[in-house]
Amino acid sequence: VYKSINRRGDSIIESLQKDFPDEDLSNWISFHALRQNDVLNGVPITEQIYVHAKVMLVDDRIAIIGSANINDRSMRGSRDSEICIYLTQNQPTDLIQSTMGGTPVLVSKYVHDLRMRLWRDYLGLSSDDTSITDPICDEVYKDIWLKTAKQNTQSY
Fold first, then answer.
1. How far apart are CA 106 and CA 89, in angstroms?
2. 80-115 pLDDT per residue, tens
3. Residue 66 class from Cβ within 10 Å (0-12 exposed, 13-18 middle, 19+ buried)?
């Protein structure tokens, strides 16, 4: 996985850098992993949690949840069997008011609630924490998400 994301000459990051040479890609894309931790005989231990399901949430409007990997086996359609669900809500009764980058927007209630639940869990926030409502503002991405990721990386 690490090689397909970051190494090999044709990785996701290298391909994007070729297409956008003047962009700092860390402003647009990042990869993170869940970890579990415990103490064994007085020594802190940790290991990455392997999750086979994949979740893509787009602007709190679309959710794609499935099993496909970003590789030839899954994407060509002639090798592995994959399944996914695509969810979007466009009925006015299914949309709620939110913000993206400080701009008011209508989003899917279900997708927004799913992201909020997942992020609260990943970031160790309480179930009523609303500090992550706007997922793309700097206060959330840099000051909460990346700060938490850095603290976790330094801890383990």
1. 10
2. 777 888 999 888 899 999 999 999 999 999 999 999
3. middle
